Amino acid sequence: MKKTCLSAAIAMSLLLTGCGGKTADEHFAAASELASEQRYNEAIIELKSAVAGAPENADYRVLLGRLYMQSGDYASAEKEFGKAIENGLSINEVGLDLIQSFYRSENYQAVLNYFSEESGLSDSLQHYLNFYQASANIEMGTPENALTTFDQLASVAEADLQTIAQAVLSIRNNEPQKALNLLESFNEESPIALEMLLLKAQLKSNLQQREAALEDFYAYLKQVPSSLRTRLIVAQVHLSLQQADKANEQLALILRFAPTHGLTNYLTAMVAYEKKDFTLAKEHIDTAITSRFNTASSRILAGLVNYELGLNSQALAHLTSVQDQLSIFPPAQRLFTALQLQAGEFTQAAKSLTSQTLTEDDLSLAASTAFQLMRSGEATLANDIIKKIEDAGLNKNSQALTQLGQLKLGFPDQTESAINDLEQALILDPSRHDARLILAASYIRQQQFDKASALGDEWLLQPETINAGYNLKALTAMMTGKQNEAEQLLLKAVAADSENPFTIYLQAAVAQQNADSDKSLELLNKTIKIKPDYVPALTSIYRIKKGLSQDVTSFITSLQETQKAYPENQELLALVLNIYQQESLHSATVQLLEDKVSKSENLGPSAYLALANAYAAQQKLPQALALIERWYKQDERDQQAALAYANVLSISGKFKEALQVTENQLKISSTDQRLLLTKFALLSELNNYKAALETFSKLSKEVANQPRVLLLKGRVELAAGQTSSSLASLKKAYETEPNVLTAQAMAETIAQTDSFDKAVKFLEKHFEAHGNDNQQLYSFYGSLLTEVDSNKAREVYESIAKARPEDPTVLNNYAWVLATSGFAAEAQPYAEKALAILPQHPDIIDTYGKIMQLQGKYQEAANLFEQSLVIRPEHAEVQLNYVEALIKLNQKVKAAEILKSVQPKTPSQTNRLNQLKSLI
Predict the structure, then answer these.
(1) What rounded mean pLDDT belongs to the chain?
(2) Other CB atoms within 10 A of residue 798 CB
(3) pLDDT tens-digit readout, 72-85
(4) Cβ neighbours of residue 529 closer than 8 Å, sequence gap 6 or more
(5) Could you say which of 1, 131, 813, 871 has the lowest number of CB atoms within 10 Å?
């Protein structure tokens, strides 16, 4: 029963629908009437119904297509015209409509190809087709064939085609105004009226008639709203008129239909950048570049955007890719150089500066570059920049002279010129306090105290600088031994400003010079009550307490609280970390920095280095390596991070990886002295002595003659068998700086190339001249004595162990001396104590293994040697110890395998290697 009712209902519905519906002709008639009233959307609805009722009717489709054109939907129009032709309509009747719908929907390939096989086109239609095909070629960037067509169109029968052809030819002849004049009075009923309107708008824009151009562009867009190219031009015109919001409206419309369009995204990024919406700007400029809009302008904008977001490594990468074109935008050139400096690319920054003409805007950057070059040992390049500044005439005003003077003070041979610049700066502008301060400091360094004091007199003339004047005069009095005068001057300074921390700090310094430490500490504490984070005062408190052998625990606790209260004071943080290092408070360093580093990518190089050093001191090399690797991976172009990474890799025994990191940096800065020095050291560790010495030859004279560099060169020459050269290099290093490192290197070399006895005598002579208060060198002296006088060696180490009973290095060395002197059992407690402090130290593990071996405990010894070699795989001495233990355990096959990998570094190791081979 239910089924019957349902069927009846459906039948009734169909009957009612059939009785009340329109025929296709009626829909067509209704559409025609609506169209005459310009009610196009309603007309289109009616015509769609007509086409649905009679899909083969070409007339219906033609009218529907033309209504689509009226409403601006040219893509839909072209489909209807195509169907009309398929339904038998002559192409001459609808061909022009179809061509225009292709062209105005920017389907240029269809304009060029659709009619390629058509014959029988009327002359008029062919002329219009030629026009649109020539225009399509121009839009597609292939105008060479189009101009011939316009030559021909200039003489056709159709007046509108003649006019637009003549206008295009005038443009070719560089006569845009003539072209515009031709188009000013075109017939608005012309089939190509819209194209004439668009060309007129483009001409007005090129002739800087931008407001009038916009009026025509918007008239065109009203008829052809889907023209994305025109909208893009309109956006650019608005931008040229500083109308960013209106430009953005057009750009947003384009991105709805073409979200990855390169130029549109670039312009959108420009607008966002101007509005300081850098996140949005980055999103669009990245899209533009990904979409192959990879112009110099887009890369520069990307660099600026990333810099504003703090993504300096990305900014540098973008600017590097177009560095040869940065001169078109000087601010970008300056930013590029600044980013190179920040990344440690000092020589590259110097090249960037020296390749351009310097202006006043470049002065500070050039001075900073020269300063960094000077610090990195590139004195020649630094001098070149100073000369370029002066040659550019940038040393004519007070500010420039102050900067140059301060910079030149870093060069010993330019002190006089620096002082002249600073004096001239003050003559030009006596109110420059920075120049006066720098000049005063220079006079003091040159011990020209009268001149420094005279500068203070000039400050006394102004109420706001009276305190500074008395401070300066008091300082010069202190430095010339006039303590009473200094005290009186400081009383006057206090009268001028009783809360000035520098004044009270100077009073504390006077008290300390008078050997009144209590008063000095009282004044320093007063200073930090006024300014709790005043680092000079905090530093002095620590030094005085250490000098008096006072407990500094409470001071460090207070300093920690101060640092928490002033977390932005980087100088204070550096002091805390420095004190932690001096006090061996490695756990405190880790506690302070570990959480900070985990939360921030840009905490600063000093924090990464301090934490890595703390990890290394705790023998936590994997953590140190992971930390520095993370820093390095943030920007592999960052030279400071790369050098730190290479250093930790080296400490971890990964010399090849460290060398690769260094080589990558040298590709950027091939003459950088720090990089070459690092490569030299790494090649020596890899026993590639020839390449190491070749690298040494590339170092500048200033760097090559530094004692520490000569020391390394001497060791490399010794390893390469160049004994006489080695001794000459080491002797030169020692004579330049007779310190612990050079003395130990000389003694080591004498011991290896001559005799232990002469090495001992050399050190004894050194001790006579320079004292033996350095425990490291004295300990090494004891190790040499083990080969000459074991009793005296034990005495030396016993005295060191008593002075430093908790020092694991001292304990380890004493244990070694005792063990190798026949007192293995007595040595064992010292080795065990050292191992409890540093359980992963390979030297201590090796010593303990040696003690076990000497007591006949070969399995325990072998286990310990194996553990040491896991940490330091290629240590020849430990390998030989391990082999000896294995032979005692009758594991000769394994011992022979290990002997194959041993590379002895001393004659004694070579002799021992041969002895062990003979036992297998």
Answers:
(1) 84
(2) 14
(3) 788 888 888 888 88
(4) none
(5) 1
